[in-house]
Amino acid sequence: MKAINYSRVFAAIIFCFILVICHNGYAQTVDLTLLKPEIKYQTEKKDQEPKLKKSKVSTLEKQMQEINLKLQKVTRQVIIVGAVLFVILFGLGYHIYRSKQRFRQQLKLQQAVINTKNRSLLTLIKEKDGLLIEKEWLMKEIHHRVKNNLQIMISLLNTQLAYLDNDAAYNAVKESQQRMQSISLVHQKLYQSENLALVNLQAYVNDLIGYLSDSFDSTSRITFETDVAAIELDVTTSVPIGLILNEAITNAIKYAFPQNAHGTISISLQLLTTGMYELKIHDNGIKDVAVADITGSKTLGMNLMKGLSKQLNGKLTVENNEGITITLKFADYKLLKAV
């Protein structure tokens, strides 16, 4: 019984083994049948991979070639543009350099011309300064000689006075002396001052008053009051002003205070407007003198004042205002033209 059982078991095992083998073989057969398309696809895929790789490589190579061509084109363009820019910049730089060179050359030439002109100007200025110094010296010498010549004439007239017995002749010579002295004082002020063209009227009037007061020995009885502005006039105006002052002051000293009476003579010279002046000589002497008698007189002194006022294009008036007042309004036409 046991042998039969073992043989059955063994037979069952063998049968099972055969079944397993058969099953595996069938499974494999089934699997192979199912996998054939996949295997074929994979095989074809593997066969096509080299071709795809070659195609990709070829495409990449073409792209690389195109990129290289573009890079070469861009490089050429950059080189061309760079070359053009370099040429332009070089040209501009050269042009600027040449312009600077020409500018420097022109500056050097201009500087040379300026230096030459400066040297010429310095030479002219030195010559001008020398001429001005010489002219100033000559003007001083002229005024000095005129003053000396007038003093010589005054001295000659003074000598002549010693030989005159006629009172009229004596007075005439004496008046001529005083007129010459008034002119001499103008030239004295000119050569003594720094400005040889203008006379300081303040100093001139004071000197003329001092001379006339001493000449008539009237210092103790006649007082002089002056109100003279800081005015400077040229010699062509100062000489007539000096002569008019001399005549007016002389007449006031001689005739306004008879019998050695005491009194005051006032002298005023003021600037009215630019270039316009007013000269006044007033005395507080005789109050009842008719103005017509003075203006209508044919004396040399009165005629001289009228003529000199016309020479100055001025207006001369005589009034009796608690004493005789002589007024002269005149203009400095050189100053008016300058303004």
UniProtKB/TrEMBL annotation:
- Name the chain's protein: histidine kinase
Signal sequence segment: none
GO MF terms on file? ATP binding; protein histidine kinase activity
Which EC class is the enzyme in? transferase
Which keywords belong to this entry? Answer: ATP-binding, Kinase, Membrane, Nucleotide-binding, Phosphoprotein, Transferase, Transmembrane, Transmembrane helix
List its EC numbers: 2.7.13.3
Pfam families membership? HATPase_c, HisKA_2
Enumerate the InterPro entries for this protein.
HATPase_C_sf, HATPase_dom, Sig_transdc_His_kin_sub2_dim/P
Q: Where are the transmembrane segments?
A: 78-97
Q: Could you tell me which SMART domains the record lists for this protein?
A: HATPase_c
Could you tell me which residue ranges the Histidine kinase/HSP90-like ATPase domain spans? Answer: 236-334
Show the catalytic activity: ATP + protein L-histidine = ADP + protein N-phospho-L-histidine
